[in-house]
Amino acid sequence: MIENRDRLTTTEAHETAVECVEAGIEAGHPRRIVRDAVGLNGDSLRIAESTYDLGNYEEIVVLGGGNAAAHVAVALEAILSDRIDRGVVVTDDPVETERVTVHEGDHPVPSERAVDGTRELLAAADAADEDTLVLATITGGGSALLPAPAGDVSLADLQSTTDSLLTSGADIHEINAVRKHLSALKGGRLARRAAPATVVSLIFSDVVGNDLSVIASGPVAPDESTFDEALAVLERYGIDAPEAVVAHLEGGASGEVDETPGADDPALAAVSNHVVADGMTVLEAAQAAAAERGYETLVLSSRVRGEARDAATTHVAIAEEVRATDTPISPPAVVLSGGETTVTIRGNGSGGPNQEFATSAALELDDGKEDGEGQIVVAAVDTDGIDGATDVAGALIDETTVEDPEAAREALAENDVYPYLESRDALVLTGATGTNLNDLRVMVVD
């Protein structure tokens, strides 16, 4: 899975970190998840803990989007075969399907081709009726890959606003509060378009806490955020949004545009949502891989968030405590965490949250290392294989990564850690992984 594995695995500790990363990502692939979460026995379709009688429906339609959406569609086709009548998914990781149409889009900034694909998806939703069972494949990345600008908002307006939000330091809840209110699909509006069909979602969560309204901006989930809140986010982060964006949000706040559907909206009465994989799916598999190699293990949390470089400082402190005092576990040990950190952009470079986490961790290890102590290796990756807007998943570092601390600090100050880590042979390259279940961090203490 990791394309430059041989260059990264220079010691047993490095090998362990890589094994944990690969095990975690593989465990979250749709072919595994759908095989366990979905079953068919005659006309009885099982999804998670619920069952649906296919005899009650005239057609089955697959609709959705996100980094893993096409892989989920393939896995559903393997189970349901020609019982799937049609479908449309939009993704940046296309694979060949038999009955579901796959449209390519772009991530993390929405594109015109994704708009075209989303329009077809909405048309397919509009064609559903009370005799339709819609299987909604909702995965991480869907917010960018399912753009459907609302009202007079253009794609360029949406791109500009999204780009500004992504570099502002706003968290995913704040970003999606804006995106949902600029969309004809997000914030439960896809469910409104598909009503009165029965909608059953299979959700691959890349959101801390699995908030259904935030994963892919909640296309078939109730939304409690408001137009007023979306405007407040723009003001909070000083976003100079295009005139059409501000006008649309102000129109919604004044009641001229319908609010997103809440939990009591009739359009959501026939919707059931199932989170079939999330960050803990990844962490548990990585933990098992470490234990198999003879390491004590500890999962810190699947909900780590905040500024990436600050989170790195805390993580390194925990690893150093393990090494120095056998607390809270004894070496050889692997400490794991998940979640989603953010980066406040101050410079004009290339990188991503996991690369900044790794660079900051390498600086901390360089400052605190002592001769004769056991090695600490840190890997930080985004499970979709795309950290920020780069072509790498993240990075793997140790105490020797930083030779010139000033160069590393400058790279962080300019948000330009990609070339720095590339020069240190520390980048982790996976390509598209077929899944997106948030970040994975692995600290190996020998």
Automatic annotation (TrEMBL):
- In Pfam terms, one family for this protein is DUF4147
Record-linked Gene3D superfamilies: Glycerate kinase, MOFRL-like N-terminal domain, MOFRL domain
Q: Which residues form the MOFRL domain?
A: 334-439
Q: Which UniProt keywords apply?
A: Kinase, Transferase
The GO cellular component terms are: cytoplasm
Domain MOFRL-associated, chain residue ranges per copy: 17-250
Name a GO molecular-function annotation: glycerate kinase activity
Q: Which SUPFAM superfamilies match?
A: GckA/TtuD-like
The molecule here is called: Glycerate 2-kinase
